[in-house]
């Protein structure tokens, strides 16, 4: 019996069912034991019946949705003949966090030495982080366009991120996502939360601009300012109760669109 999101497609075959929601995302959809989709499944199934098929991966970057194996899988899923296009009623997109996090991605956004800067936004290299998030939303736009090409009129739901806590805490040996890259660039610890917040707000502005191109087909979920510091399990992921809290931000958006 399907009683939660489906990460293993064979579960669908065993039960003889088809997905109504395709969720394409990063660790917010894949995080072990507790993630956003586990709670969203309960939200969706309060009054309706939905089956969520999950694609993407832990650590996925938004640009991976535009080519390679992930793209091929999405194209198959959306196809009305070969895949699940006939039963899908919505697509969820989660992405952008991993495009920023870690030394390889975050350090290039920053000035090499930010020790003398007094404002968070002054620590960024010229044109950043706006250029990064234009790339991210460009990748999301290609994914949205594919959805509309395959199953026109299907609503797409995208979330921004809340203000992550750059506290240096990782998960199962993974980490160095936020604090460490800023330390490498000598960003004063007192400015680091401000830098993260500036990134989150910049991404939200780019998502808002993206939505304007789709005449009501793209729905945004604003999660900013939702979590307290102790509701972050590490630098990138909420605690179980934190995920339940951000899922509440989705509920009115899903209800207004007639999905929940």
Provide mean pLDDT, rounded: 95
Number of domains: 1
CATH architecture: 3-Layer(aba) Sandwich
Shape: globular
Portion of residues within helices: 40-55%
Question: Hey, roughly how much beta strand do the residues contain?
Answer: 5-15%
What's this entry about, in short?
This protein is an alpha/beta fold and 260 residues long.
What does this structure look like?
This protein has 260 residues and is α/β, with parallel strands linked by helices. The chain has a single domain, classed as SGNH hydrolase (Rossmann fold, 3-Layer(aba) Sandwich). It has ten helices and five strands. Strands 2-1-3-4-5 form a five-stranded parallel β-sheet, with helices on both faces. The chain starts with 9 loop residues before the first helix and ends with a helix.
Topology:
Blueprint: H1 10-15, E1 21-25, H2 27-30, H3 36-44, E2 52-56, H4 68-78, E3 90-93, H5 97-100, H6 103-106, H7 130-150, E4 156-159, H8 179-184, H9 189-211, E5 218-221, H10 240-256
Parallel strand pairs: 1-2, 1-3, 3-4, 4-5
Helix pairs in contact: 3-10, 7-9
List keywords for this structure.
globular; alpha/beta; Rossmann fold; 5-stranded parallel sheet; 260 residues
């Amino acid at each position: 019996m399907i009683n939660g999101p489906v990460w293993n497609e064979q579960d669908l075959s065993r039960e003889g069912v088809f997905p109504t929601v395709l969720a394409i995302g990063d660790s917010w959809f894949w995080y072990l034991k507790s993630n956003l989709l586990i709670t969203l499944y309960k939200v969706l199934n309060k009054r309706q019946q939905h089956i969520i098929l999950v694609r993407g991966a832990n650590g996925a970057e938004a640009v991976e949705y535009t080519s390679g194996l992930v793209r091929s899988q999405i194209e198959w899923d959306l196809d009305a003949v070969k895949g699940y296009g006939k039963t899908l009623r919505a697509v969820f997109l989660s992405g952008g966090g991993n495009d920023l996090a870690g030394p390889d991605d975050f350090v290039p956004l920053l000035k090499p030495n930010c020790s003398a800067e007094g404002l968070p936004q002054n620590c960024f290299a010229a044109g950043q982080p706006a250029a990064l998030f234009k790339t991210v939303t460009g990748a999301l736009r290609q994914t949205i366009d594919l959805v509309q090409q395959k199953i026109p009129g299907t609503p797409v739901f995208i979330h921004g991120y809340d203000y992550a806590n750059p506290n240096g805490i990782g998960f199962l040996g993974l980490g160095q996502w936020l604090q460490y890259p800023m330390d490498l660039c000598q960003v004063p610890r007192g400015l680091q939360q401000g830098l993260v917040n500036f990134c989150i707000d910049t991404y939200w502005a780019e998502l808002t601009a993206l939505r304007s191109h789709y005449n009501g087909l793209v729905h945004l979920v604003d999660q900013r300012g939702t979590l307290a510091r102790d509701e972050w399990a590490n630098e990138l992921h909420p605690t179980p109760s934190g995920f339940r809290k951000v899922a509440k931000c989705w509920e009115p958006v899903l209800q207004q669109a007639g999905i929940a």
